[in-house]
């Protein structure tokens, strides 16, 4: 009976809540309240490492690297993010991935597209590739966050979304694993689709969260072996090591 009522009447009787903080909001179709949007905009403006998107302090970045990624051999040439995995943005992402709020792809994807457009390597990108999930997980949960985000971002930045990666091994989830365990867990988990050859292509990987970068690096390895000249990455949230590792990872 409620579903048959006009939306305006439903919102009059049951005012929508802000997805981020849960308070009643009055901004119409906007899923977040004005206060949360201002707080999120401040978080989006915080400085990040141009290579791994980690939070950085002033003067910490040297030659495009921060303390976390300096000295490491990385296949990802640069990364942008919307923000860090904190309360407000974390709540939005969890609502999007796990609680049926798929319409938040428009909001999160829009912010991600804006971050991509400001990247110094934006002009190099020729195609967008999403980090794939295994067919078993897709069968159990048809909605895949990275795919939906990549499709929306591709439209916003006017680039093709090409599903050329596939996951050939499911394996356990990355949640709760150490850096080394994460790298081992995804080793050999991805492959290029049959017949795909990337002739010096420059591609952008899209995923929802970056923690240690193991998944993105493994995907980049496959893309580089297939002929990609450069691989970049864009993620909604970056897990910052300023947080308690156990508490943050348990929420993802």
The helix content, as a percent range, equals: 25-40%
Strand content: 5-15%
Integer average pLDDT: 84
SSE order, as H and E?
Answer: HHEHHEHHEHEEHEH
The largest β sheet comes out as: 4 strands, parallel
Which strand order do you get reading across the main beta sheet?
1-6-5-2
Total beta strands = 6
- End-to-end distance, in Å? 36 Å
The CATH topology annotation of the largest domain reads as: Rossmann fold
Anisotropy-based shape: globular
Question: Describe it for me?
Answer:
This protein is α/β, with parallel strands linked by helices and 252 residues long. The protein folds into 2 domains: 1-45, no CATH class; 50-251, Rossmann fold (3-Layer(aba) Sandwich), CATH 3.40.50. 36% of the residues lie in helices and 15% in strands. The protein starts with 6 loop residues before the first helix and ends with a helix. The relative contact order is 0.15. The model is unreliable at 7-13 and 241-252 (pLDDT under 50).
List keywords for this structure.
alpha/beta; 252 residues; disordered C terminus; Rossmann fold; 6 strands; 36% helix; 4-stranded parallel β-sheet; 2 domains
Concise description?
The chain is α/β, with parallel strands linked by helices and 252 residues long. Helices cover 36% and strands 15% of the residues.
């Amino acid at each position: 009976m409620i579903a048959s009522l006009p939306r305006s009447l439903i919102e009059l009787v049951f005012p929508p809540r802000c997805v981020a903080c849960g308070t009643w909001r009055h901004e119409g179709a906007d899923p977040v309240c004005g206060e949360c949007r201002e707080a999120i905009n401040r978080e989006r403006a915080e400085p990040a490492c141009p290579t791994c998107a980690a939070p950085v302090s002033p003067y910490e970045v040297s030659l495009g690297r921060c303390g976390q990624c300096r000295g490491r051999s990385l296949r990802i040439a640069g990364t942008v993010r919307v923000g860090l995995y904190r309360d407000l943005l974390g709540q939005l992402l969890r609502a999007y991935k796990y609680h049926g709020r798929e319409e938040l792809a428009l909001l999160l994807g829009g912010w991600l597209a804006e971050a991509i457009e400001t990247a110094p390597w934006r002009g190099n990108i020729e195609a967008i590739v999403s980090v794939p999930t295994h067919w078993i997980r897709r069968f159990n949960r048809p909605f895949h966050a990275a795919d939906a985000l990549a499709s929306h971002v591709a439209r916003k930045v006017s680039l093709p979304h090409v599903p050329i990666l596939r996951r050939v091994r499911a394996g356990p989830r990355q949640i709760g694993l150490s850096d080394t365990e994460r790298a081992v867990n995804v080793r050999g988990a991805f492959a290029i689709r049959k017949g795909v050859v990337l002739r010096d292509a420059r591609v952008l990987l899209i995923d929802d969260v970056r923690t240690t970068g193991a998944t993105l690096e493994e995907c980049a390895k496959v893309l580089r072996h297939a002929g990609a000249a450069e691989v970049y990455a864009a993620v909604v949230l970056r897990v910052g090591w300023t947080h308690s590792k156990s508490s943050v990872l348990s929420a993802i």
